[in-house]
């Protein structure tokens, strides 16, 4: 445990380091329980720091053995070194060398930070502050050093030895059972990008020739026997490398690029320079074991980590407050990559779904924070949807506002100017201000003001004057620590559609309240609390299509009529807004029905206009199947809960949503049947997006059909389950079958598990699916599954699947008797002693507890307070708890 626990770190306290570290030479002798690390640091005073400052290196639970200053051994006393820091009160005033030897036990490292064992391999995770668990260091991202790493190990224990950069030497040790490798990374980097791996791993090799002709050796290392499952990841890697050259002009810069897949990993993957380490969930795929969604996830994460080589590694962050500088930008880049590789419209819809589910929900509760926080207690708790997803939205808005040309110029300027440095948001924004000639000061508020702005729009067509009046208003509700908010610069991409669905050209109309540039570009830069826009010269009524492509991360509240929304759903040239119109129509009905259910009434019959609108999309032979599947997927229960905002009864929400699924299932039965029963193509499985889209529609139609006609749906699901030649269809069929209680589903679950008992990643699907069943028996089922040999509290993937799956099950986690809350509290307490990062992540399930109706709210609070009673909570869990419970 660290001693600086619980002390907030403030952005306003930032000072440049007093010392710089030029080189780090590591000599690491791997051993399962006693790894020896010798570190040799070349340190010099920083001219930009304080003169005569002491040197304080960070450590975290280290066992120091010896320290040498300029070759002379120093006595290892507590003045000099403790497990958590190494201090030289009066370090030399010139450059000097400090050597330290520490001893580590990788097998005992259950936090999975620093050096640890996963399966039969040694691996590391250093971001954010894991390097200090390996050796003493100025562990901050603005200290950039050149690393050389010698790794030695028993040949049988670790035949493969990998490090950052290029391998410059390798060979046998004098003891013939041992060998070593030396890796050198010429690019100065912060220590959070350090990595090493050792183990018995198989390698899938390939190569890539960069635009300028450099040949890069590519390797993906996996557990023995699994290279065939890394083929798709390799393909995604090569496509990512090419795309970054064409889209951003960025080439790869080392002779090798290695990826290692491990099965114990706290998050998705890590962008260590030249040596990415991945959760194997984002590498391994075969048609038999991975769904279309898994393939898409692999493509995204491979691209994301690869793109970090420029946005994150070559240009890193000055301090952790600037985390979105690399994360938001890199998410934006991976989203663009996937949009180019797949259907742009469908990708945008999927990204916005994620944004709303994860980020809007975070923004709506006690864990809301700025995209650039100004304070943190535990930085690991800030790898959030706000930093990542909202961070990416800011970049997207910037491009909307200044246009593609200026955006591209700004990016080039950023790469040229800040390569090799640790930068800030100000550095980044000023490149775009220069490139566009615009003042981006007000826009910069997106980084420093939390909360999701609500954009209210009311529209009125005045037939007498042939004009459309649009009133815009924006308001952002208070968030923790920010009681009052200023207006944001909201880019509103807009167009007009006439009542027959034809687009209305903007060049024939005049406008009040819109600048020439706004009218020409079709993007309103709405930056005041209110604005009235009057569009004149319209000879017939029109429907405004606002926020096209979801041009800003705001909650749009419109007064458009059902008929207008139906027009947009049927005809808007912007696919996103077509989908959005369907979501808005459905949400209105769902929230009305929820209120009805709470009054003890039944759901109202579905409005015929709604079923007609859905039917039209479903029956459109021209429509992209993936798009149709998105339209048919109703807003989730968590989204509806967030939209309600208070006095939430998850049972009523669930019932309302099920009632609508049943209604749609019945009303659209014939069309759904046609899609659901559409024969499979004879072609072998391909994860390509067109094929995936067809499967998505077939399976979504099946699920909706089963809601309206359970017996028929169940029979179809069972048949598909048995006949499927790929995991996508098989899992979708199983999920549909799981909604109907009875021996049928239990039998399918058992068969599924038996076929994939030796595939941990498929076991995760099996666990998650059962945890998501919206029935009161689910909690007992989850408890029972925790005793299953396939489950382990030591493996994050298993925990995310079973416990995380349950926490996402709105009606069951939020059970009215509080048993779901009590269960999660129990789990958090057990996990905290083992892996605080994962424990803190699980605690996030409580982020909307205050919006629940009062019985649940009281029970949730009691569960949270029970956790606080535990002495010796980790900083990670303590920080989240404090914020969840703050008034
Ligand atoms: N940068 C890592 C995340 C590290 C999380 C540390 N708790 C992965 C990524 O965003 O690419
Ligand atoms: Zn990232």
Outline:
Helices cover 41% and strands 21% of the residues.
Structure description:
- By secondary structure, the chain is α+β, with helices and mostly antiparallel strands.
- A hairpin with a 5-residue loop joins strand 2 and strand 3 (35-45).
- The longest helix has 34 residues, at 385-418.
- The model has no long low-confidence stretch (mean pLDDT 97).
- Zinc ion is lined by residues 304, 308, 327, 330.
- The residue ranges in which pLDDT falls below 50 over 5 or more consecutive positions are none
Structure class: alpha+beta
| Radius of gyration using CA atoms only | 28 Å
Cα-to-Cα separation, first versus last residue: 28 Å
* Beta-strand percent range: 15-25%
Q: Helix proportion of residues, in percent?
A: 40-55%
DSSP E strands, number: 33
Mean of residue pLDDT?
Answer: 97
Tally of helical runs:
27
Note the overall shape.
Answer: globular
What small molecules accompany the polymer chains? (3S)-3,7-diaminoheptanoic acid, zinc ion
